[in-house]
Amino acid sequence: MWEQISSNRRRSIALTIGIGAILLLLGWLIGFFFFANGYAGLVVAVIIWGIMNLVALFQGDSILLSVSRAKKITKSDHPRLYNIVEEMQIASGLEKMPDIYIIDDPALNAFATGRDPKRASVAITSGLLDKLNRDELQGVIGHEIAHIKNRDVLLMVMCGILLGSIVMLSWFASRALLFGGAPRSRSSSSSGGGGGIILIIAIVLMIIAPIAAQMIYFAISRKREYLADASSALYTRYPEGLASALEKLSASTQELRSANKATAPMFIVNPFRSKARAATDLTSTHPPISERIRILRSMTGVSFSNYEQAYEKVRGSRKAVLPGSALAGTGEVEIRAPRPEPVEPFRAGIERRRETSGALWQMNAYKTISCDCGTRLRIPPALQNSTVRCPHCGRINST
After folding, report:
1. 3-class DSSP state for residue 113?
2. How far apart are the first and last CA of the chain?
3. Residue 197 — pLDDT band, cuts 50, 70, 90?
4. Distance (Å, rounded) from C-alpha 129 to C-alpha 248?
5. How far apart are CA 131 and CA 139, in angstroms?
């Protein structure tokens, strides 16, 4: 396991260095173009990157959760979710239970964030809690816990910051060029043929740098999704749980309102949708969902080597997704039976919606009043009235 994580980490570090090299080259060329001094641009690029990294390291998770409008819950808010996260924390061997957040959004999605396993969080949408049964939710939580365990969350935040720095530099440089024209100092000092070539390279790089960095960023996230899927199957011993959850997520036409391009790769599936259409396989931020489902359903046992065999079978190629050294000697266990629902599926869906609504009311500080007719009235905190009429029996209740 640790060899696998280390190998994956080495490849990710190499790709991260690639993004960093693009940032430094872009900074040098912008400095050369605008200030006739490449090193000045290099220093500006490093300063911007350093400041953004410090913010990301110490406040990145809080910013991401805040931007996503996620609210922290306790065990009493949603006991089922809390219990599942606790189960996956034990199964993964994670040293500390992550904090749990709920995003009040009908879209089906989830993500993990945090600087390290001791300061990690998982966030789930209310739509996901409504739609998934226990086995499916366990598969999704297992996937997110794997991202924490494999140290993916910090890497993705750092890569996102690098990408953001490149986009910011390119944006300012392109606007300065568009509205200010070529700087006089540069024009006069670049009379030689070499200077002209560098100017052209600088302009081209301003255009393609954000695209190239974004492609590398997405390549990192795609590879890590496979490892998180395999880890989830290992923790839950039930690959069908995650496969069934992914099937529901891919069929959803709801777009997550709080997601943006920088945070998209952190979610379990791409949060963006074409208008009123389900998630497509043609996404650059995540591996094709249908392929991920087929791999999980092709597993005949629970181990990394079994996932690797399923991956090769589905892809029809011998190009491995997991390193061979990590697969040697991996033990395999049988896939467990599905956990039966306590009530029939339709009734279970109603109970899940009630459970989620109760958690959302509690999170948003709604007051509950029980009417004598048995109706439970939810009173929003902003309501100033001293009484409220029961919509069922007409009784006046004091707030």
Report:
1. strand
2. 56
3. low
4. 12
5. 13
What would the mean pLDDT of 148-156 be, rounded to a whole number? 80
Q: Are 88 and 235 contacting, i.e. CB atoms less than 8 angstroms apart?
A: yes
Going 5 to 10 to 15 to 21, the CA torsion angle's sign is positive
Rounded CA-CA distance 145/8 in Å is 17
What would the two tokens of residue 255 be?
A: 């777009």
Helix (H) or strand (E) holding 209: helix 193-236
- Count of CB atoms situated within 10 Å of the CB of 154: 20
In whole angstroms, give the CA distance from residue 66 to residue 288. 29
CA angle 136–60–363, rounded 5-degree value: 55
CA atoms within 13 A on the CB side of 213: 32
Q: How far apart, in Å, are the Cα atoms of 226 and each of 196, 311, 340, 370, 376? A: 45, 9, 28, 48, 45
Which residues neighbour 141 within 8 Å (Cβ) at sequence distance 6 or greater? 84, 85, 88, 110, 122, 124
Question: Cα separations (Å) of 143 from 182, 222, 303?
Answer: 50, 13, 15
Is the pLDDT at 121 greater than 50? The verdict is yes
Instruction: Give the integer Cα–Cα distance in Å for 313 and 206.
Output: 41
Say which amino acid occupies 35: F
**What's the distance, CA 273 to chain centroid?**
15
Banded model confidence at residue 112, pLDDT cuts 50, 70, 90:
very high
pLDDT at residue 138 greater than cutoff 70? yes
Residue with more model confidence, 174 or 330: 174
| Pairing verdict, β 367-370 and 99-103 | unpaired
Under a CB-based contact definition with an 8 Å cutoff, are residues 389 and 375 in contact? Answer: no
Rounded to whole angstroms, the Cα distance separating 388 from 399 reads: 7
Nearest-10 crossing angle of helices 289-297, 239-251: 160
For the annotated catalytic residues, the residue numbers are 144
